[in-house]
Amino acid sequence: MGAPRIAIAPEPAADWVRQAIEEGGGDVVPLAESEGLVWTAPRGADELRSLLGSGPRIRWVQLPWAGVEEFARLGVFDDDGSGRQWTCGKGVYAEPVAEHALALALAGLRSLPERVRATSWGAQAGVSLYDARVTILGAGGITECLVDLLRPMRTEVTVVRRDASTPFPGALRTVGLADLHDALPGADIVFLALALTPGTVGVIGSGELARMEPHAWLVNVARGRHVDTHALVAALRNGVIGGAGLDVTEPEPLPDDHPLWALPNVIITPHTANTQEMARPLLGARITENVRRFAAGEELIGPVDGSLGY
């Protein structure tokens, strides 16, 4: 079998993408000649759907990010009879995102938001993460890395996932989303690391926040729409929870005059748990490996389940 013919769209081929394909044994070719496609834009679902419908016999598409909700919402993954394989960046960025989540959690428990704004000595404050109780929503690569990072701290981890019949490795408890309310009381940190689907939009609202401990921190490195922002602002203002570490928000970017910016118990980072500088070598390695597997007829990494939308 010859080298797999891979196109790059919609942007001009960046050198690192071309290099990743070639290192996997592929040839970069025009779209009309391709059997595989590396899509380099985080959005553009309509453009991609139109492109695929125009005739190219593309059997595999690699998307750049783990979050593919726009593509799912617009029906890009709907079965069109082509048998096309879809893969995304699922798991590619797990390590830096888990690292960022842990940094937000530690900063919150150690009262660093207050201290970085302080202009006087102040009172002692802070809670240790050692032997703490942690609840993580999601059971993908980020959670896997986060559980590994938490293990030396002897944390008691509960994982909330879609299918609770499979225990999550390293977690003390694994429960389904229907049992979320039982997994929130007692947790010192609640991490959000789950896919955004119609069933997880607003998964954290006023009812869930009320179930959390008054000192607990909510850390979101998934999607802003998982959280009811108005309910979160009210909970933070009224001491319902201890604070929030947010790498994602709803809306995003967060407007300069949004009330979240003025709250002393909030840390906001501008969706930088995974930066472009971090992403390129990680995504490049995934592209290389999937091109190699595509050529060999092996199972691809990071498959998208069209029925689930992630």
Write the layout of secondary structure elements.
Blueprint: E1 5-9, H1 15-23, E2 27-28, E3 36-39, H2 45-53, E4 60-62, H3 69-73, E5 85-87, H4 94-109, H5 112-117, E6 133-137, H6 141-150, E7 156-161, E8 173-176, H7 180-183, E9 189-192, H8 206-211, E10 217-220, H9 229-237, E11 243-246, E12 266-268, H10 276-296
Parallel strand pairs: 1-2, 1-3, 3-4, 4-5, 6-7, 6-9, 7-8, 9-10, 10-11, 11-12
Helix pairs in contact: 1-10, 4-6
Coarse shape: elongated
Tally of extended strands?
Answer: 12
Sketch the major β-sheet: 7 strands, parallel
Mean pLDDT over all positions: 95
Q: State the share of residues found in helices, binned by percent.
A: 25-40%
Share of residues in strands: 15-25%
How would you spell out the order of helices and strands? EHEEHEHEHHEHEEHEHEHEEH
Instruction: List low-confidence stretches.
Output: none
Q: Which structural class best describes the helix and strand composition? A: alpha/beta
SS element count, helices: 10
Question: Using only CA atoms, what is the Rg?
Answer: 21 Å
User: What's the end-to-end separation, in Å?
Assistant: 31 Å
How would you write the strand order of the largest sheet? 8-7-6-9-10-11-12
